[in-house]
Amino acid sequence: MKSQEITFRVLRFSPETDKKPHYDTFKVEVKGRMTVLDALENIKHEQDASLSFRRSCRSGICGSCAMKINDLTKLACKTRAAVEASKHGEVLVEPMSNMPLIRDLIVDMGEFWREVDRGKPWLIVDEKQAADLTKENLLTKEQLQISSKLADCIMCGACFSDCVSRVFDKNFNGPASLAKIHRFVADPRDKGGVGRIEGLVTIGLWSCTHCYFCWSQCPRDVRPVVAISALRALSFDIGDKSQGARHVAAFIDSVRSSGMLNEATLYLRTMRWNTLRDFDLILRMTVKGKAPSPFGRPIPKITEVRALYRLAHEVKQK
User: Fold this and answer.
1) Which of 53, 156, 232, 301 could make a disulfide contact with 105, Cβ separation 3.0–4.6 Å?
2) pTM reported for the whole predicted model
């Protein structure tokens, strides 16, 4: 079995002795399909017993060993050390982001769990249905398929760690939380149902930027961004008038009426009276000829665009 010496650069922090985090470098003889977790175990048992990290099942099921590996959050037990080294020349190992650092590669996941709890990720039982002990309340295969993927979430926090929206908006409760909410919104046994959606705007429903990191970094392919899009569509359909919903409505109307996006009307309809705070900037852009005109002309084949909208609406109605 071939082996190679690989450099591991690991972030270290001890609250008792360190004022700020620093990096330590280790050399590990990596054989065959050794994972990053295998290498960290080697470092801990043979080079530095003080190295701290979480791990449990070693099989990609528990999610305990989630950490940043070469700047992206992954499960250390599923990540091949040799593959990472071949791509980056070394293996950089750091704790997850968007959560307070406790020690070395261990973060305080309390913030992640608090955001999950904000969405009430549990079945709200209809007491009348629950009282009928003679009937088993099961889902059909079709109903189960809607949320079956979301049930695969192992709550590792990888999506939360790599969420760019969370970096800039601490009110955004994160991809995992919204994915959990959609799971129960789609469950006909849940008493809350679509009623859960009304409160989602206050916890950041429209803060997601659709960077798709939550999908690409999820070790279970849960696809939280798909759930977020579905929740937004439902929120829009029940009459959401928030800034995010106005932005979507303005986008749709602009393309339907002219065949292209008019950035001026998009901004004005989304921001409304808040445009007054940017009045000086708008005026200077207009003088310099850089402000888009709100009176754009439709494209030559606008009738075809509108026909597509009508067809999509008819399909949705069916």
Assistant:
1) 53
2) 0.86
